[in-house]
Amino acid sequence: MAESPPAPPYARFLGHWELDPASCRYEQGDPPASGQYIIREEVGLLVFDMAWTDKAGDAHTASFSGKADGVAVPFEGTDLIDSFVIAAESPSELNSSAYLKGEKLMQATRTLIDDETMRIVQTVYLPDGSAPSNRSVYYKRG
Fold this sequence. Notes:
Layout: E1 15-26, E2 34-42, E3 45-53, E4 59-66, E5 73-74, E6 83-90, E7 93-100, E8 103-114, E9 117-124, E10 133-140
Antiparallel strand pairs: 1-2, 1-10, 2-3, 3-4, 5-6, 6-7, 7-8, 8-9, 9-10
């Protein structure tokens, strides 16, 4: 009997996550009124689908995908970044970083507190040397 391949290091992150708006601690911008985060696999890629509603009631979505191998890959569609990296640091830490001309502009650190609770810290590296961070907690819903 053949053994199943081992689960990828990011396996515990896969699923549907719901924002706890009361957990938001933002140093830049306004926290959302609500939010959903779906992390899934699709043809060898890790896909991040995000949807949120801002304080004014306007809905927003964003999505990106890539291999969680820690290797920078080109990113097209915006002049703000030209490459990004997804890295499964451990079974309880999954990070993504955005770069422009080799300089890190943003990092999102996802940490599992337990199998049902994920903390996300998004840090933006500004030209003046400051690095404001936005923190939030999501609960697994499926």
